[in-house]
Amino acid sequence: MGFVPFTLTDFVDIVLVAVVMYWIYRATRGTNAPYIISGIVVIYLVWVVTRALNMELLSTILGQIISVGVIALIIVFQPEIRRFLEMIGLRQKRLNFIAHIFSPKHNEEMDLSQIVTACRDMAETKTGALIVISQQSDLQLIIEGGIGIDAVISTSLLKNIFFKNAPLHDGAVIVAKNRVVAAKCILPVTQSSVPKSYGTRHRAAIGLSEVSDAVILVVSEETGGISIAHAGELRRDIEPSQLNQTVQRYLKKAEKSAADRKA
Q1: What whole-number distance in Å separates Cα of residue 236 and Cα of residue 233?
Q2: What domains does the chain contain, in order, with CATH numbers?
C-alpha cells in the first residue's frame, strides 16, 4: 500500500470533528452523558474488533445493539440534543456560548457575605433552604427547569425566596457570579446509600454534587443545621461562625479541581 499524503482537506476534517466533539462535551458537561458515551464507545470498539476477527455471532449481536442504540441515544439525550441544535441555530445562543467559555470564574465577583448571613438567619429560624453556588459545570438544564430571576444576591432576597409561605421556597436557588439566576429548581436526588436521617434537600444536594462541581449549601428545616455538599460528600452541622471560611475553602477546592482537569 502506497503512502497517502496528508492534505489540507484532512486537516480541516480533523478540526471540524474536534469542534463538534468539543460542543458535545460542553452540552453534556455536568450530566451523566459522558459516562454513557464512554460505554457506547467501548461497545463500538469491541464490535470493530469482533468484525476484524470474523467473530460472526458476537459481531452480529453487537451490530444489532448499536443499530437500536441510535434510537436510544435520541431518547436519552433529547435535552442535550435540543440544546446542541439551539447553539448551532440561534445566533444569541452561540454568542452566549462563546462568552461563557471566556467568562471569569463564577465566584470571582461573588459577595459570599450575603449568602452566609442569609444561611445564618434562616438557621436560627429553622427555615429550610437549598442554595447552589455554580462553578464550571453547566447547570443550564436545571436552571431552565426552574423560575428565572437574574437579580443581584442579597440576604433579603434569599430569605424572601425561602420564606415558608413564599411561592418559590420549594426547590433550589442557583447562584452564578454575583447573581441569583433561578429559583424553585429541581435537583437530581442521589441514588447512593445515605443515612435515613437525611432529608430531601440533603439528598438533592449530594445528588447534584455527584454530577457537577457546584458547592451546595443546605439549611435543615427540622434542626436548623447548616450543611455543605461537594464532590459527592456532605459535611453536616457547620458552625455558623465558621460558615464563611468553610464555604471559601470549598470554593477554592472546586477551583483547584477545575484547574487540575484542564491541566
Answers
A1: 10
A2: 8-101 (no CATH), 112-262 (3.40.1700.10)
